[in-house]
Structure to design on (213 residues):
């Protein structure tokens, strides 16, 4: 499998509905080639596809995900979904998978799409004989590619630079069909009763011996 095949697979999972086809050549001799826009539907249960998508979202955004730390874009509310992978290049037998020989190290893979709420881009990274795992070797590279693409997209950049809405100061209320924040309650200060000034007779009474003693 090559990186383009992995990227196509990821784009189909991100789309969740169509068998998207990439177009490498726009036209030949002035004749425009098929764009792939008329892609057929995916032959899978949509619920199964969504299950896989949610798993990819968790890999990159759940704190227990295998690539959580390496998948944070730092671009406002835009999140990336992904999946780590390792391609074995030899039979380990009873030995260790680790090797100091470059040709015997495993390949590392990472696929991703973003934004998770409105997918627009898919990326696939293969690090040949990286030997470090998909999260360590592949995810940081995919993250930087995705950051570059998103920052070059005018729509995505506008979303990134959009200020976050202020947090409501109270519980939401609905009035005349309009949702708004509940007004802050008026603060009423109840004056405390004045305390009597201490006098010479206030305080503990002196000890008096009982009569006859």
């Amino acid at each position: 499998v090559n990186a383009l095949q992995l990227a196509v697979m990821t784009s189909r999972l991100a789309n969740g509905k169509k068998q998207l086809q990439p177009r490498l050549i726009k036209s030949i001799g002035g004749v425009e080639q098929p764009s792939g826009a008329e892609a057929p539907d995916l032959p899978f249960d949509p619920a199964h596809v969504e299950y896989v998508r949610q798993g990819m979202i968790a890999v990159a955004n759940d704190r227990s995900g295998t690539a959580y730390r390496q998948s944070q874009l730092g671009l406002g509310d835009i999140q990336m979904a992904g999946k780590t992978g390792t391609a074995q290049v030899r039979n380990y037998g009873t030995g260790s998978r680790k090797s100091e020989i470059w040709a015997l190290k495993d390949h590392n893979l990472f696929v991703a799409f973003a934004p998770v709420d409105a997918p627009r881009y898919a990326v696939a990274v293969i690090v040949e004989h990286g030997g470090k795992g998909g999260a360590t070797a592949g995810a940081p590279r995919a993250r930087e590619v995705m950051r570059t693409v998103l920052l070059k997209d005018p729509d995505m950049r506008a979303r990134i630079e959009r200020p976050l809405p202020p947090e409501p100061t109270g519980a939401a209320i609905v009035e005349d069909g309009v949702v708004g924040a509940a007004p802050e309650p008026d603060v009423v200060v109840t004056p405390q009763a004045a305390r009597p000034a201490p006098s010479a007779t206030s305080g503990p009474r002196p000890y008096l011996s009982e009569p006859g003693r």
Q: What stands out?
A: The longest strand covers residues 107-114. The domain at 3-161 is CATH 3.40.710.10 (Beta-lactamase). The beta strands are 27-28, 31-32, 81-87, 107-114, 121-127, 172-175, 178-181. The CA atoms of residues 39 and 87 lie 30 Å apart.
